[in-house]
UniProtKB/TrEMBL annotation:
It comes from Deinococcus aerius. Gene3D superfamilies: 3.40.50.360. InterPro entries: Flavoprotein-like_sf, FMN_Rdtase-like_dom, NAD(P)H-dep_reductase. This is NADPH-dependent FMN reductase. One of its GO terms (cellular component) is cytosol. Residues 9-149 form the NADPH-dependent FMN reductase-like domain. SUPFAM superfamilies: Flavoproteins. Pfam families: FMN_red (PF03358).
Amino acid sequence: MTAATRPFIVGIGGTTRPGSSGEKALRVALGHAERAGARTRLFGGPELAALPLYAPEKQERNEAEVALVEAVRQADGVLVATPGYHGGVSGLVKNALDLLEDLRGDERPYLDGRAVGCIVVAAGWQGTGVTLSALRDIVHALRGWPTPLGVTINTVAVQAFAPDGSCTDAATDGQLATLAGQVLHFARATAALRSGVPA
Ligand SMILES: Cc1cc2nc3c(=O)[nH]c(=O)nc-3n(C[C@H](O)[C@H](O)[C@H](O)COP(=O)(O)O)c2cc1C
C-alpha cells in the first residue's frame, strides 16, 4: 500500500455457531474500516472451519489455506476476533493463526509491521480479560502490533448485536470503530514512512 491507496484489512475470527457474536463484532469493525476508506476481507466461522488442523510436517495446502495465507500476506492491518473458550483463544481461531507459520520466510514475516486489533467475546468479564491478554501475547509472538485498545464484549451482560448483525449497543459500536481506526492509522502511518509521503 502507498499512502494514496486504500489499506487492505483482513478480519479473522468468530465461531461456526450461526449468529456468532464474535463474527458479528468482526463484521461491524470491518464495516467501520470500509467507511474509513479500507478494502476488507473476512475469514469468519465457515472459512476457518474449512482449514484442516495445522500440521507442521504437511506441505500441501488446500484452497482455504491458500486464501487465508495470501490475504494476510497482502494485508496492511488485521482484526482478530475470538471467543473466550476455557480461559483462552478458541481452537478454531488458534488453528488459523498457527497457519501463519507459512509467512515465516516472507520479507514481512508473520504479522510484521501490521497493527492487529483484538476482539474477545465471552460469557464473563474474567474470560474476556484473560483471553484478550492471551490473544495479544500471540500477536506479539507473530511480530504484530496489538492496538492500544482491545475490545472485550461480555455477551451475557451486554446484548450488543441484533439478529441481522447490526450493533445495537452504542458503547460497543464506538469501541469497534476506535479499534478499526487504530488499525487504519497504523497502516497509513507505516505506509507513509515507507514512501516518504506524509500520512
Ligand atoms: C467450549 C466453550 C468454552 C467456553 N469457555 C468460556 C470461558 O472460559 N469463559 C467465558 O467467559 N465464557 C466461555 N464460554 C462462552 C463463550 O465465550 C461465549 O458464549 C461467546 O460469546 C461465544 O462466542 P460466539 O457468540 O462468537 O459463538 C465458552 C463457550 C464454549 C462453547
